[in-house]
């Protein structure tokens, strides 16, 4: 059937409604490379008012044969409601074989003026020898005539067909996009652009998952909702199906950007080669209720060589941290600075402990919630150590004041690095996955060698520490720790019951801990400048030997237990 020419009055409408436009996605801090502009879908006249375009065509291998799926987009350019003409949808191969597909029970039968509708078709055949699809057609079948009369209403060439498979064969028909380059999805009726900005392997209770963070941008002038699509991952021999982590629809206003995330369960030890962007459509058999998802590959992206591709920027301790501009976990009025980062031995333990201490300042004029970000410490060899946040924190921060939150990291004794990347993370909504909101490259602080120790927001000076034992008539031994301290506190930094404490452990000559005492920086019996005496815990044995050594720790209560940072050994 001869193609109907474009009507001049319809051209402008169709260009605005159906052509996918490219644009430039702006990252939180940097500009992404320009998006490749997808070729506009070629439109054909189905009736005098309804035009049609091919959204997707897919041939997917099944256990017993092949699944053929087609989605066609229709547009009613008329001024009244128009009925979609009765038809069968058929696909033809280059060898002349024709297959008739079954329509979804949810396909529209008519379109309102200026309305766009998508018709979904699918069939399964018991053969894997489908060949190359080169055309699809709308065919009207008059079953009331004998012999039956078939009229081709419209025939459209298929310039892009997804032959679902694994490995390089699956990617041959797809356009390739470089990692970090923005793109639009071919054939999808949307002006949004996307940029893959971070990929990481994360472990959950359900197994290993590849998590991909994608920046969605709306360069247009009206509100748009992110269309249905997903990302799969491929190795050389296997495909791994992904799923969008956001359950609710994601809507972007004009000029707005948001992150979307894809979780792809993979096997341990797998090496991924590519990501595949697939548009998805729902197919419901007529008379049925259960929808099947039909996926069609649109683009391929090479899996990045570097995991967790957020580049750590050089950072000076004490400076405000620059967060991703799109993050919601840290309020714009909250200033966050890393004040301490130490790694030290734990006498008597089989591991080392790193401690990071953050200052969070409310720069606004009203109380705001204290942000709850997660953190990881990454060595130069790529080893990642998960941080444990202190167990109790203040929920709200008053204006003009700073609050201190600590994180501890358990690392092996073999860790000897002095430079680390510190990643601050935000949890993806309603999922166990995380995404990076800041990445800092910094050196460990060296423990003070003189008598003054930094314990932000305090500076401690141990002028003198002595230990004496007292024996009661019941043969109970009490230890008196006499301290002569100098304490200076920074101004406008809140210290409450959640702040870390000092622990004094008394160790005898044989290396046994024979007594201990915790001391707080607030409350009725808080540590003060000057001379004070602490009563250590009682024990009921006299099996110890002099001289005594006092190990002074900073202790932090976390969800994983008590974390200790060794401050000083006094002999």
UniProtKB/TrEMBL annotation:
<keyword id="KW-0732">Signal</keyword>
<feature type="signal peptide">
    <location>
        <begin position="1"/>
        <end position="28"/>
    </location>
</feature>
<protein>
    <submittedName>
        <fullName>Uncharacterized protein</fullName>
    </submittedName>
</protein>
């Amino acid at each position: 059937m001869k193609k109907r020419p474009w009507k001049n009055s319809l051209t402008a409408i169709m260009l605005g409604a159906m052509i996918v436009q490219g644009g430039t996605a702006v990252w939180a801090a940097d500009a992404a490379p320009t998006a490749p502009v997808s070729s506009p879908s070629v439109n054909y006249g189905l009736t005098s008012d309804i035009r049609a375009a091919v959204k997707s065509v897919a041939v997917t291998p099944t256990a017993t044969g092949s699944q053929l799926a087609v989605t066609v987009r229709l547009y009613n350019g008329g001024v009244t409601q128009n009925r979609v003409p009765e038809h069968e949808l058929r696909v033809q191969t280059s060898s002349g074989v024709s297959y008739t597909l079954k329509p979804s029970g949810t396909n529209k039968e008519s379109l309102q003026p200026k309305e766009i509708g998508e018709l979904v078709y699918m069939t399964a055949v018991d053969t894997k020898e489908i060949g190359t699809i080169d055309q699809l057609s709308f065919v009207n079948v008059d079953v009331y005539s004998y012999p039956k009369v078939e009229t081709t209403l419209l025939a459209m060439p298929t310039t892009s067909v997804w032959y679902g498979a694994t490995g390089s064969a699956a990617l041959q028909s797809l356009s390739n996009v470089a990692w970090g380059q923005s793109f639009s999805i071919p054939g999808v009726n949307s002006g949004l652009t996307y940029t893959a900005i971070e990929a990481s392997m994360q472990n959950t209770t359900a197994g290993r998952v590849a998590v991909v963070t994608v920046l969605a941008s709306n360069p247009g002038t009206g509100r748009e909702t992110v269309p249905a699509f997903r990302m799969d991952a491929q190795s050389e021999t296997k495909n791994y199906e992904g799923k969008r982590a956001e359950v609710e629809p994601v809507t972007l206003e004009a000029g707005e950007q948001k992150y979307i995330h894809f979780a792809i369960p993979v096997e341990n030890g797998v090496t991924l080669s590519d990501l595949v962007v697939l548009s998805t459509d729902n197919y419901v058999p007529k008379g049925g209720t259960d929808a099947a998802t039909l996926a069609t590959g649109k683009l391929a992206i090479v899996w990045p060589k570097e995991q967790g591709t957020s580049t750590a920027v050089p950072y000076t301790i004490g400076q405000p941290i620059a967060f991703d501009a799109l993050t919601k976990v840290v309020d714009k009025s909250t200033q966050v600075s890393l004040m301490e980062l130490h790694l030290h031995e734990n006498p008597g333990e089989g591991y080392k402990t790193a401690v990071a201490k953050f200052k969070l300042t409310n720069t606004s004029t009203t109380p705001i919630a204290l942000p709850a970000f997660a953190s990881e410490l990454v060595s130069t060899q790529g080893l990642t150590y998960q941080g444990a946040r202190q167990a109790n924190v203040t929920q709200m921060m008053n204006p003009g004041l700073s609050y201190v939150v600590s994180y501890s990291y358990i690392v092996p004794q073999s860790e000897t690095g002095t430079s680390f990347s510190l990643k601050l993370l935000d949890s993806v909504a309603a999922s166990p996955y995380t995404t990076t909101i800041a990445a800092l490259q910094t050196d460990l602080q060296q423990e003070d060698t003189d008598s003054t120790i930094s314990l932000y927001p305090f500076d401690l000076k141990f002028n003198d520490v002595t230990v004496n034992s007292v024996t009661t008539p019941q043969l109970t031994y009490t230890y008196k720790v006499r301290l002569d301290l100098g304490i200076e506190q920074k101004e406008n930094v809140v210290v409450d019951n959640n702040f870390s404490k000092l622990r004094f452990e008394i160790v005898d000559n044989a290396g046994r801990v024979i007594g201990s005492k915790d001391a707080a920086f607030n409350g009725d019996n808080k540590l003060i400048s000057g001379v004070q005496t602490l009563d250590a815990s009682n024990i009921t044995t006299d099996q110890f030997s002099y001289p005594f050594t006092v190990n002074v720790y900073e202790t932090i209560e976390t969800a994983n237990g008590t974390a200790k940072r060794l401050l000083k050994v006094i002999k």
